[in-house]
Write a structure and sequence with these properties.
Structural class: alpha/beta
CATH superfamily: Aldolase class I
Strand content: 25-35%
Number of helices: 11
CATH architecture: Alpha-Beta Barrel
Largest sheet: 8 strands, parallel, barrel
CATH topology: TIM Barrel
Strand order of the largest sheet: 1-4-5-6-7-10-11-12
Shape: globular
Number of strands: 14
Number of domains: 1
CATH class: Alpha Beta
Order of helices and strands: EEEHEHHEHEHHEEEHEHEHEHEEH
Length: 254
């Protein structure tokens, strides 16, 4: 079987691509088109593109901008941000997005997950779950990349999302985002062991070793932002991605 997928996760804002820490204090890291061209050359597995302003602003995806990015990409792209209807998902699929990432809408109305899965197949819908530990150390679902806790149990939400039709789950650890401290392996184990769809781990990767740890904990894919846009202790901006040989040595065959 092929190795686990390694996926750069790019955060889109009106200014361009940004990187956050704890989903706060966005720092500009470059132009989306130029970044995608670099990742083309590095032959990345996939890209995840998240518009971090769309849901908060209550606006639809910027279809024209997304279409420009897709036109430059040689790899599959999953998009999330502002998707609240089947019609919007259809527009994104129509311009070349392969997977729709649903977060807030899956909390408010899980039927959107079912609708997308029924129309385009489960493989086309990813439910992204923002997670924070509460004061008792229990995992709870958060709203919109670091918003307030919903009080919803993460495992229950993950299972409900799969039952609704999600073909993949993406776990975003809010407090580890941008820190480089590594993934929360307990979180990965707790969800991956209870669902029968691939789990994408996200939030906290600071080294290639962290990717391997997440896969051993049960992740089918690993996503990262800082790891692929910064280098060195001063976090200089430089788009990077390991070679396939390096990843096979780290992750092995599955």
């Amino acid at each position: 079987m092929p190795r686990a997928r390694v996926i750069p996760c790019l955060l889109l804002a009106r200014s361009g691509l940004v990187k956050t820490t704890g989903f706060r204090e966005p720092r500009y890291v470059g132009d989306a088109i130029n970044t995608v061209r670099i990742f083309n050359e590095k032959e990345v597995d996939e890209l995840i593109l998240l518009d971090i302003e769309a849901s908060r602003a209550g606006r639809e995806p910027d279809y024209a901008r997304i279409a420009d990015i897709v036109d430059e990409a040689f790899m599959p792209i999953a998009y999330g941000g502002g998707v609240r209807s089947l019609e919007q998902a259809g527009k994104l699929i129509g311009i070349g997005i392969e997977k729709i990432v649903v977060n807030t809408a899956a909390i408010d109305d899980p039927t959107i997950v079912s609708a997308i899965a029924d129309r385009f197949g489960s493989q086309a819908v990813v439910v992204s779950i923002d997670v924070r530990r509460n004061w008792l150390g229990r995992f709870r679902v958060c709203r919109t990349a670091g918003g307030g806790s919903t009080g919803i149990d993460v495992e229950a939400h993950a299972q409900a999302s799969v039952a609704a039709g999600a073909g993949e789950l993406m776990l975003n650890d809010v407090l580890r985002d941008g820190t480089g401290r590594g993934y929360d392996l307990d979180l990965i184990r707790s969800v991956a062991g209870r669902v029968d769809v691939p789990v994408i781990a996200c939030g906290g990767a600071g080294s290639l070793a962290h990717l391997g740890e997440a896969v051993k904990a049960g992740a089918s894919a690993v996503a990262a932002g800082s790891l692929f846009v910064f280098v060195g202790r001063h976090r200089a901006v430089m788009i990077n991605y390991p070679s396939d040989d390096a990843l096979r040595g780290l992750l092995g065959e599955r």
